[in-house]
Amino acid sequence: MVDIVRTRIALREAVASWRKDGLTIALVPTMGALHEGHLDLVRAAKHRADRVVTSIFVNPAQFAAHEDLSRYPRDEARDAALLEAVGCDLIYAPEVAEIYPDGFATQVGVRGVTARLEGAFRPHFFAGVATVVAKLFIQAQPDFAFFGEKDWQQLQVVRTLTRDLNLPLEILGIPTRREADGLAMSSRNAYLSAVEREVAPALKAALDHIFEATQAPSADMHLVMQQATQGLLDAGFASVDYIEACHAYTLEPWKAGDPARILGAAWLGKTRLIDNRG
Ligand code: AMP
Which of 35, 38, 209, 222 is flagged as catalytic? Predict the structure, then answer.
């Protein structure tokens, strides 16, 4: 079975011994509750690097007090079996105190790409992500790190922090793995009731509709986005945090001629789904 280490010292030892042998290393950061989307990242990492480390850490710093930290799904034995099957070489599964020991006082903040969308609705979120990602990069010292396009804004945040801090690794983004009906795979899909699960693909359909409008020069984008929001509510979503066409890399509101990315976040009952497409 694939080895699991829980301390940064043990992680460093494993990585150092691979480096001594001249091997390259990829890191795949996750919060566990793995699905095929996560496994696509590991497969791509395996293809690119000699050794792959997958971290499993449900990062408290990226959850607000009212969010789902305590009920976030956890099943380490299942995750380890899935990772073993796709050839992951090492699992790094630290306790919270290993990452945030008493007295921990530092926060990594990224401006600009965090200002809107998820950043507006979850103000603590990207600082939590940037801080833990910076720590994981420093602890694992990988040559490559793999992230999903499923969390498109997060991918831009990670690229920005890696560039701005001159971190010596390459960031690779991997396309979103979807269910047959279009729903993006997510650990949070496990929260959906049978009825909610039927409604859930409407989010991807709404993104598609807006994307098509960005390709039609005369479309009234404001109206299209309003209609998409109403369509989600009519389909059974409880509320829509945002659904909007953006510049794919700055995440500013989209203008004709910009590379387009459509991003959405909406509540289905008590579950918040996010998705995007380009
Ligand atoms: P999470 O465990 O949700 O924090 O996700 C860990 C990594 O897997 C992140 O880089 C996500 O963007 C990526 N990921 C999550 N869901 C998918 C998916 N459906 N397809 C591809 N990557 C994904």
Answer: 38
38 catalytically annotated: yes
Q: Is the pLDDT of residue 178 over 90?
A: yes
Give the pLDDT of residue 218. 86
pLDDT digits (tens, 9 = 90+) for 77-124: 999 999 999 999 999 999 999 999 999 999 999 999 999 999 999 999
Ligand 1 contacts (CB < 6 A) are 30-31, 37-38, 40-41, 147-148, 150-151, 174, 176-177, 184-187
Q: Considering only CA atoms, which residue is closest to atom 7 of ligand 1?
A: 30
Which atom of ligand 1 is least distant from the CA of 184? 19
Answer whether 57's CB lies under 8 Å from 33's CB.
Answer: no
**In 3D, which of 191, 186, 272, 197 has the Cα closest to residue 235?**
197
Give 220 Cα–ligand 1 centroid separation in angstroms.
Answer: 32
The reported pLDDT for the residue numbered 82 is: 98
Which is the closest atom of ligand 1 to the Cα of 150?
Answer: 12
Check: pTM over 0.85? Answer yes or no.
yes
Question: 262-274 pLDDT, tens per residue?
Answer: 999 999 999 999 9
Distance CA 219, CA 275 (A): 22
Left if phi > 0, otherwise alpha if psi is -120 to 50, otherwise beta: which for 176? beta
